[in-house]
Amino acid sequence: MLHYAMELSELIQVFKKKIVIEDSTLLMVWLYNSVYAIQDRCTHLGASLSKGTIDQDRVTCRSHGASFELSTGNLVEKPHIGPLKMPAKKAKTFPTVIKEGKIYIDL
Ligand code: FES
């Protein structure tokens, strides 16, 4: 079911934004003329990915460096403390639809 998320013009201005729809907290990203929606909660220990960094096609959690591909949610860099790598799961991503300047998310 599609849910209104935010105005496209706002996301283009701020580049990334944390939003809440229903019971889901998402990170919205505008990158390479595309909109991405990924769960805001890191699959390692739950830190907010919206506080992380966006680089190329991925978001990196600032807590322990887990890195997720924005389009698929695939884990591309495991979390680590020093040289010790730890497991984490794939992050959930959500399809987006843009209609008349508004972004909708399929939850
Ligand atoms: S909570 Fe995100 S890498 Fe540990």
Give a summary of the structure in a few sentences.
The protein is mainly beta. It has one helix at 8-14, and strands at 2-7, 16-21, 24-31, 34-39, 53-55, 58-60, 67-69, 75-77, 80-81, 84-85, 96-99, 102-106.
Structure characterization notes:
- Helices cover 7% and strands 48% of the residues.
- The protein has one helix spanning 8-14; strands at residues 2-7, 16-21, 24-31, 34-39, 53-55, 58-60, 67-69, 75-77, 80-81, 84-85, 96-99, 102-106.
- Strand 7 and strand 8 form a beta hairpin.
- It starts with a strand and ends with a strand.
- The mean pLDDT is 97.
- By secondary structure, the chain is mainly beta.
- The chain has 1 helix and 12 strands.
- It has a single domain (2-106), classed as Rieske [2Fe-2S] iron-sulphur domain (Rieske Iron-sulfur Protein, 3-layer Sandwich), CATH 2.102.10.
- It has a 4-stranded antiparallel beta sheet with strand order 5-6-7-8, with no helix packed on it.
- The site of FE2/S2 (inorganic) cluster (FES) has 10 residues, from loops.
- Residues 42, 44-45, 47, 61, 63-66, 79 line the site of FE2/S2 (inorganic) cluster.
**CATH fold annotation:** Rieske Iron-sulfur Protein
**Contiguous runs where pLDDT drops below 50 for at least 5 residues:** none
- Helical content stands at under 10%
Q: Helical region count?
A: 1
CATH secondary-structure class: Mainly Beta
Number of strands: 12
Largest sheet, if any? 4 strands, antiparallel
Number of domains: 1
CATH homologous superfamily identity? Rieske [2Fe-2S] iron-sulphur domain
Assign the structural class, choosing from mainly alpha, mainly beta, alpha/beta, alpha+beta, or little secondary structure.
mainly beta
Task: Let me know the average pLDDT.
Answer: 97
Global Rg: 14 Å
Kindly estimate the percentage of residues that lie in beta strands according to DSSP.
Answer: over 45%
Shape, principal axes of CA atoms: elongated
Query: End-to-end distance, in Å?
Result: 6 Å
Small molecules bound in the structure, each named once: FE2/S2 (inorganic) cluster
Describe the strand arrangement of the main beta sheet, using strand numbers. Answer: 5-6-7-8
H/E series, N to C?
EHEEEEEEEEEEE
